[in-house]
Specification:
The protein is elongated and about 115 Å long. Helix 26 packs parallel to helix 28. It has 32 helices and 21 strands. By secondary structure, it is an alpha/beta fold. The protein starts with a helix and ends with a helix. It has an eight-stranded mixed β-sheet, sandwiched between helices. Strands 1, 2, 3, 4, 5, 6 and 7 form a seven-stranded antiparallel β-sheet that branches. A six-stranded antiparallel β-sheet has the order 10-15-14-13-12-11. The longest helix has about 40 residues.
Amino acid sequence: MTDFKTAMQGLTTEKAAELLAVHGKNELTPQKKESLFLKALEILREPMFLLLLGAATVYFVLKEPVDGSFMLGFVVCMIGIEVYQEWKTDKTLAALKNLAAPRVRAMRDGQECHLPSAELVPGDLIMIEEGVKIPADGFVLKASDLCVDESSLTGESQGVWKTCRGDYQTPATSSNSGDYWRKDYCYAGTLTTQGSGYILVDKTGADTEYGKIGEAVAEAPDRPTPLEKQIGRLVRLCAVIAGTLFFAVGVITWFNTSGQPWERFTAAVLSSITLAMSLLPEELPVVLTVFLSMGAWRLAKRKALIKKLPCVETLGAVSVLCVDKTGTITQNRMSVNELYAPGGDTRELCELMGLGCETEAYDPMERAMLDYCEQMGVSKEHLESGELLKEYAFTNRQKMMGHVWRHEGELIIAAKGSPERLLELCVLTPEQRANARAKAEQMSSQGQRVIAVGDMRPELQGNIPELLQNCRLTFRGLVGLADPPRETVGADIAQCQRAGIRVVMITGDNGLTAASIASQIGMNHHDKVITGDQLSRMSDEQLRSRVRDTGVFSRVLPEHKMRIVKALRENGEVVAMTGDGVNDAPALKYADIGIAMGERGSEVSREAADMVLMDDNFSTIVSTVRDGRRIYDNIRKAVGYVFTIHIPIALASLLAPLLNIAPENLMLFPLQVVLLELVIDPTCSVVLERQPPEPDILTRPPRPAKEQILTPAMLLKSVVQGLAVFAASFGLYYFTLMNSGNAGQARAMGLVVLMTANLFLVQVNSSNREFVLKTAVKLLRDKVMWVINLTTAAGVLLILYTPMSRFFYMEDLPPAQLLLAITAGGVSVLWYEVVKFIKRRT
């Protein structure tokens, strides 16, 4: 047997480590890591790599082992790049998952600490409170108004009020399987909806009741996001085009090639493979994964933890931001600012206020009240010197609570709550009631949260009312609590409104208080307030009409939040919603982006949310929207870049056979295409991901939610830019070939133009508005940009002016020709600066 005092000390670190080795981590299913070898095999199944292996095979069949070996070397190199990118992405996502891993308050070595839930072992003592998802099965050692929602196990929606055990067994002699659904026992996976308690962990992981049905509650497989679907459709469309032209180019090359059938066949195969490789935009899925994961990691460093990657792309489309007042708009530093006692006895009001608070307060408002009691000389020891006989629990509907004490020789029912509700229970004359309401409205209009306090003194041997609503209270006064707005929130609200994002305040506080705060911070429509009671009487159609210009929703219930979000979404808005309570979870899930509070939010709300604010700061929300728009912009730039740079490669591969150019004189062979892919991949996944935001990032309206990633205007821009690069590269190649007959030099000219155009393309397309000189200055401060640009330039020189040139079927270029090729590459892209100039002027 373990006595109560020993159980409340928790385990030692050494004992916990021993038990962890025996029982394993508190997880339903251990996570499996995919080996690098399996990842490499998976990459090899992609069409691009199958084409590369096919080209290598053809070279070996043609008894050109050097070319075949080069191709295989490039395959290994590209697989290495892909594996590294996947490893880096997985590492980033794992780090984000660790940041989001649930933690629990526990006792170790006699001290309270915060542990990852996965490290809990039988014998640990944990503390739970409202909003916590219980991480393990265990005995209830201590409970204060502890109510648990066990519907995930039992199917019963009614909350279960927990009681304490009469004895304290060690896990070794704990309850048998017949003790199902006990009131002195808590179960993993259930939710604490009210109160607080101490739990002695009995079972963890797969041994819990939740773990026994682990297979049934396993997570559903991930579904592709709308953006992933768009990218998938683009890749499939390109694959169909590549497949069609693969056969067409093969047939054309067969008929245009002289020689033996075998020679004609291999020439046709190599031409077809070259074209197919040039048409496959295999970088696009990688771009999406890398950009979203790296974007999420950057956001995490700014105190915004992304739990679901798709919400990164949605951030840029947010048009309405629904926020709570307390802690998000305000500083969440509650303090008693004013007391109003009609009878003049503020000490009695202060004492009753303290008696009406939880003995172990966790709510910031109650903590502020108890702190004020201490300042007024009403100590915690004095308040708890009596015997607590009964508790009237707070509910969202009643918005009041009370305690029954045997205190200093008399029975005292101390009650507190919203003035609207509590004054209904008070015995007052019409004049007194009117005065109390007027004072409450005056205090609320100053931005204070107002709490009414009353009491009832039954006979010592009399009956205690079963419900607080049955009490007839004496009104003792009002308490005004101040929670000033955050210093930067006014500027942040103005920034949101300039960005076309409407901010709506949804609060459980009084409408006058909320409207006062909204006015102080400059919110639009702060004078248009809808209360929870008014909302309950509205039809869905009426609500859809009213939400268009309402700035404040006050005294709302959790189900009201769901209706507000639904009405906004039905109006075509993209809604981000903040929440911190256990009852906010449904609305957080229903919103386009659910945002939970990391510091004061419940575990249930954090689990339901797409994003967690680790500093509960409104400024962080604004910065995440800014980053969300930047990330989406950069994904678009990368998609446009991929299409642009593939167009000249594909057209060069397609046009050469049509012009009856001999197979040995083609501008591009598979080797050259692979070389270009080695430049394109890091440009997409590294350079474009690091692009800074556009100057107008937060002064333009949100993008339409259903807008395609590749719009007609973007496609037109990519096609025109691609045609310009093709004209320069293929034109110089064809001109040199026709005039000199030197295919090696002609091929080198075309490739230098493509490489140079690639470098300039990134600079030109890094901004849709700013000129290249301005963006280049910003980008050249980035060391990564320097490394990639210098590596590309060095690679070109290495291929042209070393013995490696013969492996790529090229010859070195005289300085004049090299300068001409570089100039042509620059001009083929820099012409777009004129378009920017015209657009800025108009």
